[in-house]
Amino acid sequence: MAPTSPFTLDGRLAMVTGAGSGIGRATALALASAGADLLLLSERDNLGPVAEEAAAAGATVTTELLDLADRTARHTTVERLLDTHPVDILVNNAGLIRRAPATEFTDQDWYEVIEVNLHAAFELCRAAGRRIVARRSGKIINTASLLSFQGGLVVPSYTASKHALVGLTRALANEWAPHGVNVNAIAPGYVATATTAALRSDPTRNDQILARIPAGRWAEPADIAGSAVFLASPAADYVHGHVLVVDGGWLSR
After folding, report:
1. Residue 7 pLDDT
2. I need a surface site. Which of 3, 28, 134, 223 has the fewest CB within 10 A?
3. 27 vs 48, 97, 145, 163, 208, CA distance in Å?
4. Is 158 one of the catalytic residues?
5. Helix (H) or strand (E) holding 50
């Protein structure tokens, strides 16, 4: 019998937030291709196409509409889903970004971004962690950013949340690694998604960004998804508290 690939996810169930588009969608499909079944969450009614594609690849797929900015709804829904679905892999991908100079940045934009990017991510980690720590097996993957290391421009709440998410990733890895649970993060570079549409449509900013990327192009969502498969797989069983940068060489420049 042929040896089992260290990257196989057969028999695993992965929960992916923000799964309807961009990096979340590509990640969900990559996990399904590696053999995982899926529990997909989105705040928008956009999960139908990705669910159909994943099912065609052989995955069993459950979808849930959930606004992660709603504290009451997310607590109730997440606990219900995790009680009825024994999740092995959590991918905290959903996120918000708001752009404005710090002197003009509103309280609402600050708190809404922190709510989704940090508070909701922690609560999902905590809820999934209770269960997978008890089972002594599981993977948590948080979506960080290049702005987990840099300040960026006119995105103070996003930058703060992504710095904090890396700290949270390392703190949880320290607690849960002895229990057979891996907590890691992926820090994507500049990816061609709806979130970056404003940057790509600005000729000056687009040229400045491309000039800094050694690979010479924006990433596509699929460029990020393979890293999630790796971190979710047995191949990464001894990887704890790591931030895997996938940036086309940006930080090396």
Report:
1. 95
2. 3
3. 15, 20, 16, 22, 28
4. yes
5. helix 48-56
Write down the pTM of the prediction.
0.96
**Residue 92: enclosing H or E segment and its boundaries?**
strand 89-92
Token pair 């695993």 in the structure block, residue: 12
Locate 163 and state its tokens: 């710095």
Look at residues 18, 64, 17, 14 and name the one whose alpha carbon lies nearest to residue 34: 14
**CATH number of the domain that residue 174 is part of:** 3.40.50.720
Ranges under pLDDT 50 in the chain: none
pLDDT confidence of residue 3: 61
Q: Which two tokens stand for residue 94?
A: 């959903």
| Residue span of the structural domain in which 61 resides | 13-244
Residue 126 lies in a domain: yes
Residues whose CB falls within 8 Å of the CB of residue 108, separated by 6 or more in sequence, listed in order: none
